[in-house]
Amino acid sequence: MKNVLIALCWLVSLGVLSLHAESFDSADKSQAATLASPRDKAASCARDSAGMAISPAPPQRFVAINFGAPLHLAGQAPTTGNGSIMPAGLSGNPQVVAATPVLTQQPLLLNSDLINGPCCYEEGIQVLVAEESDHYVVSFDLASQQLGDSFNQFQLWLNDSAAPLLRFQSDYLVVLDDVGAIASFRDDHLLHVQLLLNVKAGQLQVSINGETLYVGERTLEQLHSLQFLMTIEGGATPEQVNPHATIAIDNIVVANATYQYANLQATLQRGSADHQRRQGAVEFVSHLKNVSAHAAEEVVLTHLLPAGTQVMAIDSDQLNCEALPDRVICRSEALAALSQANVTLQLAGDDARQPVELTVIATSRTAEVDNYDNQVKGRFGGSSSLLLVAVLLVLWMAREWYEDR
After folding, report:
1. What are the φ/ψ torsions at residue 68 (nearest 5 degrees)?
2. Domain around 227
3. Rg of the chain over CA atoms, in angstroms?
4. What are the two backbone dihedrals, phi and then psi, of residue 101, each rounded to the nearest 5 degrees?
5. Same domain, yes or no, for 131 and 229?
6. ∠54-60-63 over CA atoms, to 5°?
7. pLDDT in tens, 169-206
8. How far apart are CA 328 and CA 322, in angstroms?
9. Which end of the chain has the lower number of beta carbons within 10 A, N or C?
């Protein structure tokens, strides 16, 4: 009977706390990477920034690879070729997958393929860069699963260098060649990695999710190729390697002047639960962030509303918003570099038992380096999930009562 009483208390708490339960289709992108040491960032602030100046040449993309259909098929190796929209070569047996918990638009999945042993446990792709430039910007989306304590690591190689430029290790450290750890990261979080290579001045800048982690001198030749590789750590044996550790990558872009592009990200989060319980409305906050060093002009954040939804209140710190019958549109003439705008909406539906599904889309007049994370969908409220939990709890309590007899 003690278990029955505990279950009853749990059910009561669910009834209070889950009146506006929600689920999201995207992960939080703002806290995925954190600085491991302030030394490089502090040093970069003291340097003359002229060396990282952007090329005056018109913006041009040299490589633009995503692993979506119809070029690539889920469950198969990616299509290869000499073009700028596909990898040039494969190592091991990398597979395109329909989705991962973080990268939901058909990314490429890498693990340490033990079939390749005993000398080389690795999977990866090679990307060729045919054009020459004084400046290159490399960016890609990355998310790890079970990498911690796996004896695996993900590496980014440039050209035919003797060592990888970046290593994402199983101790959750991002290690830069000849420098050391510059950041930490977590599994199941999106990392938007961006490298600015100034060939003429011999400098490198590394950023993750808009946070500049390192700026320093780096002797660079023209960028000819990239290699994205999942491999095992030195000295690891096959018995130590976790075969379930994976890296998902997508949206590989190489350009000559990415900092003349914007890079918008849209995210959603739950609003005040106290307000929802008092007012009977669903509150949520949408965030629009420009993860680049160049302003986005004529920014529009569109909230698509399901039929029967009433807008109870709108509040924004930077955007001018208006409510239309089926959407809320928020605008601004510009969103500054590495800045964020927030919109708080309170919505009510015709039927409180049905969840409110919301889609948020970010656009601007400025060209973007990628648009993977410009759209996010959220599902708020509804009582169907609570009802299902209640039914399961009743069945469980009935079984406990019968066994206690």
Report:
1. -80, 165
2. 33-258
3. 24
4. -55, -25
5. yes
6. 115
7. 999 999 999 999 999 999 999 898 989 999 989 999 99
8. 6
9. C
Question: Residue 323 domain-assigned?
Answer: yes
- Beta strand segments in 305-368, E: 309-316, 320-324, 327-335, 340-349, 356-363
Residue 91 near residue 134, CB atoms below 8 Å: no
Which of 252, 268, 279 lies closest to 343, judged by CA?
Answer: 268
Cα–Cα distance for residue pair 71/62, rounded to 1 Å: 18
Residue 129 domain-assigned?
A: yes
- Sign of the Cα torsion 250, 290, 287, 363 reads negative
Q: Is 123 exposed, middle or buried (0-12, 13-18, 19+ CB in 10 A)?
A: buried
Q: Is residue 235 located within the same domain as residue 353?
A: no
User: Which residue in the block uniquely carries the two structure tokens 């440039």?
Assistant: 158
Of the CA atoms within 13 Å of residue 241, those in its CB half-sphere come to 23
Q: Which residues of the chain have pLDDT under 70?
A: 1-57, 114-120, 257-260, 273-280, 293, 350-355, 369-370, 372, 380-405
Q: What is the pLDDT of residue 292?
A: 74
CB 92 within 8 Å of CB 123: yes
Whole-model pTM: value is 0.65
User: Could you tell me the CATH number of the domain that includes residue 282?
Assistant: 2.60.40.1510
- Report the mean per-residue pLDDT for the chain: 79
Distance between CA atoms of residues 79 and 101, nearest Å: 23
Q: Quick one: which of 249, 247, 246, 251 has its CA closest to 265?
A: 251
The answer on 267 and 394 residing in a single domain is no
- Please tell me whether residues 350 and 394 are part of one structural domain: no
- 104-160 tens-digit pLDDT: 889 999 987 766 555 567 899 999 999 999 889 898 999 999 998 888 999 999 999
User: How many distinct structural domains can be found in the chain?
Assistant: 3
* Whether 241 and 271 share a structural domain: no
Could you tell me the end-to-end alpha-carbon distance of the chain, in angstroms, rounded to an integer? 10
